[in-house]
Amino acid sequence: MTTTDTIAALALGVAIVAAVAAVGSWKAARNSNGAAQTLSRIEQQRLHTDLTPIFRCAIVANEARSTAMLRVHLEGPPGLLSHDAIEITVSIRNDNPHRGNGPQLAGTATPEQVRAHIWGPWKFSADGRDDTGRTVAPQQLTVGEWTRYGLTPTAPPTWSTSSTQDWLRDYANEPVRLSITARSKGSEWTVPLEVPVTIETDS
User: Is the same domain home to 84 and 13?
Assistant: First the structure.
């Protein structure tokens, strides 16, 4: 082997070692970048969870149970103070999340009709409600502040054989199942709640 051949062989060896090192370095950088992204995602999820809004709700109905008032108070957490106003949308959930999921019998209501009906004691009567009274228009709240919504009794669905009196009696002592969606600075939270109803009596 000539000197030139030896030098060429050595150069090739150095090039191979450098290439292997470069590949190893690239893999290490990729793994490091992946780990950093995972840690960042975990931290973002933790922060999102830590900022989940805390609501205190109360419902007071008049003695005749013909009207009621829902009060929603945004209690925290303190970290939301830096978010200024939080947009909230309040909705009423059905008494059973599986309503409408069963097989449809001939001549009965469709699953969509069943799910669309409010299966619970109260619906919204406040301004900005939707056609069914299930949801009200979004409002802005800051931590420590509250808002309120008017409620009115629900009625049995049009296809039901239950009377209004039977319907109201069946739901008389049931809580109102709420879902509050809060949005702020690109973040969104959905908070499920069950709120008992207090009956206002004349003292």
Answer: no
